[in-house]
Write a structure and sequence with these properties.
Distance between the termini: 159 Å
Structural class: mainly alpha
Number of helices: 12
Shape: elongated
Strand content: under 5%
Low-confidence stretches: 52-81
Number of strands: 2
Order of helices and strands: HEEHHHHHHHHHHH
Mean pLDDT: 73
Radius of gyration: 43 Å
Amino acid sequence: MQQQPFPTYQPNPWVPSPTPEQQQQHVPQQPQLFVPHQSVNQQPMGGMGQPVATSAGYGMPQGYGAPSVPMAGGGFGGGGAAGMDPFLTGVAGNMLRQQGQSYLQRGQAFMQSKMGFLSGSSLHYHFSINPEYVRSKLAMLAAPFLRRWSYVRVAEQISGGHKYLPPRQDVNAPDLYIPLMAIWTYCLLIGAAALARSGPSGGGFKPEIIYNSVSSSGAAWLLHTLLLKLILGLLGIAGAVPMLELAAYAGYPFVAACTSLLAQLAGGGTTYHAVWAYGSLCMAVLLVRSLKRVILQEARTYSIDNSRHNYLLLGLAIFQFPLNAWLARLPPGAAGAAGKAAAAAGKAAARAFF
C-alpha cells in the first residue's frame, strides 16, 4: 500500500503573517539563577521608592551580568553582611547581643560583690609599704603599749578611693607583708628545729615537716581571722572591718611566735617562758587597742553594749597566750638537740678564746 504524503497547507490570504518584531517577542529567554533571601524580580529601592542602580545594571542586584568582587568586610557580592545569616544581622540578632552583654555585666558585678576583697586594688593597698613603715610597725609590735602609738587611722582625702591612707603613709594601717613574712620565717624555723633534731647527718629530717608547718600555720591564721570576724559579728558591726584587714591583724601573732621559737631553740627554759609571756602580752594589747578603736568609732552610729564588748575583748586577749604557746611548739626532741648544739658551740668558743 503506497503511503500518502502529508498534506501541505497554504497560508490563508485572509490571515496576516506575523511581523519580525512579533517574532522576536516569542524567542525563549534563558532562565535566571536563584539568589537566596532575594526574589528574582526584587530590586533594591532607594529614597522615595525609586529603584537604585547597581554595578550590574539598573534595577538588577549585583551578581547578574557582572562578576562578584570581594569586599573589605569579607564575602562576595553585597558586602560582609551578605554571607551572614539575616537572622543574626537583623533585629533579633541585636536583641541577642544586648541580652548577652547584660548577662555578662551582671555576672561581673556579682563576682566583684562576692570576691571584692581579693581584687587587685585591695591587695595592692595592703602591700603598699616601704622600709620605714616596716621598721615602725615592728617597733609597734615589740612595744604596743607606748603612748606614741595612737591607733587612730588617718582618713583618705581623695573621694572615690579607699577610706583610709595606705600603710606606707600611716603606721596604724594594717598590712599583709609582715604577716606573710612572719609565717614564712615561722615555717623555716620549724624546719631548722627538725633539722637540728636529726643530728649532724640529717638522716631523720623529712620534708613533710615543712608541709605540716605550712598547713598548720595557714589553718591557725584562718581560724584566728574567723574569730575576729565572730567577735565583730556578736557586737553587730561585722562589716566595720574588711576581711583583708582582719587577716592582717590575725597574722601579727606569728611575729611573737617566731621570737618564742628562737628563744626555745637557743636553750628554752626561763628565757623561752619570758619571751613567750611578753610576746603574747604584746599581741593581746595590739589586738585589743586596734579593735577598741574600731568599736568606739562604730559606737557613734550604732548602740553597742559596753559590757559585752569588754568581755569579748578580754577573751581575745587571753586567747593570745595559748595560741602563742601552740605555735611555738617544737617537734619532739628538737629543743634538747638545739640546746646541746648551742652548749657545745659555747664551750668550743670558750676554749678557743682562753
